[in-house]
Specification:
single chain, about 575 residues, alpha+beta, five-stranded antiparallel beta sheet, four-stranded antiparallel beta sheet, 20 helices, about 55% helix, elongated
Length: about 575
């Protein structure tokens, strides 16, 4: 009995072609096709991101910059934002708003440009160490990094990713070991430090690179200047007596750095693997789920093993310094729920730093076709998951934009409102809004262009936007029924529609004072722009009148009222 051996996929003429193709991809010499493929992937990423995030609006941080832009002073530009020096983002936003108005597309394109610059620089740094096609794989995945949608789909990603780009450019400049490269590195670090604090991690890596160089004293100025810039800013904050909200640094949290590192790596590597999509809900799984902890453990074991084989001046130590400095800067400002390890806000810069370490750790190793196939399999998995997350996040951001526009429209109506004092339980407007800074947006809106709905757009606005308008208006003014003495006069039936029908009987009432009366009493609810009566203004006592004072503004849309008792009447307001 004879046996027949099945031919291998890599045998024969077709298999030879595959082998030659893979061997060509293993070259460590620069190629033209890899940068072209990266540019093509950027074009696809841009088209996807711009489409799914169409119709979105400024994030909370951006609304703060929007509000500052009309009269931005140097002091305002230098004041800390959540503990960060944001000089460049604030100035750039003010310049663009004054030049182009409030069109958000400009800032979304700006964000993508910063993301693609960071990815391109990561590719340039990596290709010299592992070859073009090993370097290309994770860079393609980063172009579709949907686990951090705030830094990919919203304009304020420009801030973080410009700082990351500046840090990467500094590392590339230092590797040139030339006067020109050092100048580029110094300027890049200064730009990064003036943009966002994530650049401090790259500054730490640059300090290690300079101190490890044989001519360290001659090159020390490269890091002293940006470090001095940042320290001078911190001294100025203290000297000027500026209170920095959310700027509390707890140095004792550094004892938690090992735990923070493990949890952060779990989230980062989960995202880079693409094995974290949440099929049972929405978004992605948390850092401790699925492959995250196992990948973090494997990463640490691998890095620990490679560390013992690395020379003192290797790029590996620079990359490790960047990663650890990044995690240290995060753990000292840890805030439960808001700033947790491995959460979305930290993932993009963390992924870049982790990839620096991974690339540096395999530099000089011999790896073949299986390694290349494995890297691309992971990258394509991450890309597919990223596309799905971008799709989901884009939908969520579009929904948020509708509600924020509703909030801003309500703020405009409240500015005009007269005739009604806030009732018991009325809330400050900022506490009701989805984004606190939307409360102060009107002066900038008048200069740069409308963010909310125009008066003639309100009726056709999405239901969620109109519901938000009602929620904000009613929460801030809190109208209520105020019992009146005596018997009401000139009362007329108010409600129209059958009692007990599918919809409650309703009536229109103007802003100002309305006197209500019902022989049977009943609960009274109101609405204005929304489709549902979600707010009760109180209970009418049987046979006793009460006044209801509603805000008056320039919008012609009347208020609507309903009651659990259909005999509701409107009376002459003489005794109100």
């Amino acid at each position: 009995m004879s046996s027949v051996t099945e031919p291998s996929i890599l045998e024969g003429e077709s298999g030879l072609r595959v082998t030659r193709f893979l061997d060509a991809l293993l070259t460590r010499k620069p190629t033209r096709i890899a940068p072209a493929l990266l540019a093509g992937a950027m074009a696809v990423s841009a088209a996807l991101c711009l489409w799914v995030a169409r119709g979105t609006i400024y994030s909370g941080d951006e609304l703060a910059w929007f509000n500052l832009a009309p009269d931005l002073s140097l002091r305002q530009a230098l004041e800390p934002g959540s503990g960060h020096l944001l000089l460049i983002p604030r100035v750039v936003y003010a310049l663009i708003l004054n030049a182009f108005g409030s069109h958000y597309l400009v800032f979304r394109v700006l964000c993508l440009a910063a993301v693609y610059l960071a990815v391109a620089l990561l590719f340039c740094w990596s290709r010299k160490k592992v070859g073009d096609f090993f370097a290309l794989a994770p860079c393609v995945a980063l172009l579709f990094f949907g686990t951090d949608p705030g830094h990919l789909l919203q304009g304020n990603g420009f801030t973080i990713m410009l700082a990351v780009s500046a840090g990467l450019l500094a590392l590339i400049g230092l590797e040139r070991q030339s006067r020109g490269g050092d100048l580029i590195a110094c300027l890049a670090l200064c730009v990064g430090v003036a943009t966002y604090s994530v650049a401090l991690a790259f500054l730490a890596g640059a300090i290690v690179a300079v101190l490890a160089a044989p001519d360290r004293w001659r090159r020390l100025w490269v890091v002293v200047l940006p470090l001095g810039l940042y320290l001078a800013w911190r001294i100025w904050i203290v000297a000027a007596g500026i209170q920095a909200p959310r700027d509390e640094v707890v140095w004792s949290n550094l004892v938690l750095l090992p735990t923070w590192t493990f949890d952060s790596l779990s989230g980062i590597l989960n995202a880079l693997s693409g094995l974290h999509y949440n099929f049972g809900g929405s978004g992605w799984l948390p850092p401790g789920a699925m492959a995250g902890p196992a990948l973090a453990l494997a990463f640490l074991v691998w890095i620990g093993w490679r560390a013992g084989r690395m020379p003192a001046r290797a790029p590996f130590w620079i990359a490790v310094t960047v990663l650890l400095a990044l995690f240290a800067s995060q753990v000292v400002v840890w805030a439960p729920v808001i700033r947790e390890p491995g959460t979305s806000r930290y993932l993009y810069p963390g992924a870049v730093a982790a990839l620096l370490v991974l690339v540096a750790s395999v530099r000089g190793l011999n790896y073949g076709r299986p390694a290349l196939l494995a890297v691309w399999l992971v990258a394509l998995t991450a890309t597919g998951t990223g596309v799905a997350l971008i799709r989901d996040s884009g939908a969520a951001l579009r929904d948020r934009a509708v509600e924020v526009r509703g909030d801003i429209t309500a703020v405009g109506l409240l500015e005009q409102a007269t005739g009604a004092r806030p009732g018991p339980g009325a809330q400050p407007v900022g506490s009701v809004l989805l984004d606190f800074d939307a409360a102060n947006v009107l002066p900038a809106e008048r200069q740069f262009g409308r963010l909310g709905y125009a008066p003639d757009q309100i009726a056709s606005a999405p239901p969620t936007a109109r519901a938000r308008m009602d929620k904000v208006l009613l929460a801030v003014t809190m109208p209520y029924l105020k019992p009146l003495p005596g018997q009401p006069k000139k009362c007329l039936p108010l409600l129209a529609g059958p009692a007990g029908g599918e919809s409650p009987p309703t009536a229109e009432v103007p802003g100002g004072t309305t006197v209500l009366f019902s022989e049977g009493g009943g609960k009274v609810s109101i609405r204005r722009f929304g489709d549902d009566f979600t707010t009760s203004v109180g209970e009418l006592s049987p046979g006793r009148a009460a006044s209801l004072v509603l805000p008056v503004d320039d919008n012609p849309t009347p208020w609507q009222i309903t009651s659990t008792n259909p005999d509701l009447k409107a009376c002459a307001p003489d005794q109100a």
